[in-house]
Write a structure and sequence with these properties.
By secondary structure, the chain is of the alpha/beta class. It contains twelve helices and twelve strands. The two termini are about 35 Å apart.
C-alpha cells in the first residue's frame, strides 16, 4: 500500500466527503477516487460505500483505518526525529488557534520564542474551537490552541491546559451596571449577548444557569468575543467574557457565582509535535501556571 492512497483514504473519512478531501489535498475529485480505488484493489475489498445519506466505512474499511493512521503517524514521527538532528529552528511552525487565544495569549508566547529562535517563523490558522477535529487531521499543524471540552479531550492529546476565569459584564449605561449583589435570576430578565449555542463557552454559561433552574435565552449570537465585548459595552445586553478582556468600557457585575472555562493546546494522539512546537510549549510553561503533559 502506498502512502498517498492511505492519505486519501483517511482524508475522505475525516471530511466525510470526496470533494472536500480533494480540496484539502489539492487534488481533483477523480484523483482522490482513483487513489481509493487503488487501495481497494490492493486490499481486495471495498473500503467505502457511498449512498444518498453520505459515506460509510465497510467492515474492511473499519479494520484498515487504525492501521492506516498508525502508518502515517510513524512516518511523520520518523521525519520529525530526523529533523530534530538539525539544531536550528527555521519553521514555519503551523498552528491552529481560536480567535481569542490567537489575540490574547499566543502573541506574547510567539514573540518570546522568536527572541530565542530568530529564524523560526509562524503560520497561524484562525478557526472556531469546534472545528478543531476536522482541521487538525486536514492540515499539517502539530498543535491547535482551543477551548477544551470532553469530546476534544477524548479524541486528542492534550499538551497543556489552563483555566480562563470569566466575569458577567455589561456596559456602563446598562441598568444592571448600577445594581449590587445580583443573582442569576436578576440578570436573566435582561437580554444576553453570548456565543452560539454550539460553542463550549455558551455551554459553560448555559449549564451554570440550568444548575439554578433558569433557562437562558440569548439573543444576537456571535462567536467573536471582540464583537460581543463591543455590543455589551454600548448597552445592548449583558454577557460573559474572559477576565483578560475586561477594561473600563465594561462593568463587571457583582455576581458571587464565578465562571471559568478550560483553554489548552491539543495535537493528534501518537503524533510527535516536533522540536519547534515543544519549544513553544516550554515557553508557555515558563510564563504561566499551566498543566503540561509529555514534555
Amino acid at each position: 500500500m502506498d502512502t498517498q492512497s492511505l492519505i486519501a483514504f483517511i482524508t475522505v473519512i475525516d471530511t466525510s466527503s470526496f470533494s472536500e478531501a480533494a480540496e484539502a489535498l489539492h487534488l481533483t475529485q477523480s484523483a482522490v477516487s482513483k487513489r481509493i480505488a487503488t487501495l481497494e484493489h490492493q486490499t481486495g475489498r471495498p473500503l467505502i460505500e457511498r449512498s444518498g445519506r453520505g459515506l460509510r466505512l465497510t467492515d474492511a474499511g473499519h479494520a484498515l483505518l487504525p492501521h492506516a493512521r498508525k502508518v502515517l503517524d510513524d512516518l511523520h514521527n520518523a521525519r520529525e526525529a530526523i529533523a530534530s538532528l538539525d539544531h536550528r529552528m527555521q519553521g514555519p511552525l503551523s498552528l491552529i488557534t481560536s480567535h481569542h487565544i490567537g489575540l490574547h495569549h499566543l502573541p506574547k508566547w510567539l514573540r518570546a520564542l522568536q527572541q530565542t529562535e530568530p529564524e523560526l517563523t509562524f503560520n497561524l490558522q484562525f478557526l472556531e474551537s469546534e472545528q478543531v477535529f476536522q482541521q487538525l487531521h486536514q492540515h499539517d499543524a502539530p498543535l491547535a490552541w482551543v477551548t477544551l471540552n470532553d469530546r476534544i479531550m477524548e479524541r486528542f492529546q492534550v499538551w497543556c491546559s489552563w483555566e480562563d476565569p470569566m466575569s458577567f459584564v455589561c456596559g456602563p449605561d446598562h441598568p444592571l451596571a448600577r445594581a449590587d449583589q445580583l443573582t442569576l435570576q436578576d440578570i436573566a430578565h435582561y437580554q444576553a449577548i453570548l456565543p452560539a449555542s454550539t460553542t463550549e463557552t455558551y455551554r459553560v454559561v448555559s449549564h451554570h444557569f440550568l444548575q439554578h433552574g433558569i433557562t437562558l435565552d440569548a439573543q444576537m449570537p456571535t462567536n467573536y468575543l471582540e464583537t460581543i465585548k463591543m455590543m455589551s459595552s454600548v448597552g445592548l445586553g449583558w454577557s460573559v467574557l474572559p477576565n483578560t478582556m475586561l477594561d473600563n468600557s465594561l462593568v463587571a457585575l457583582d455576581i458571587s457565582d464565578p465562571l471559568t472555562r478550560l483553554l489548552g493546546a491539543v495535537g493528534i494522539r501518537g503524533r510527535e509535535p516536533g522540536r519547534a512546537a515543544r519549544a513553544l510549549l516550554q515557553t508557555v510553561s515558563a510564563s504561566t501556571q499551566t498543566d503540561f503533559t509529555g514534555l
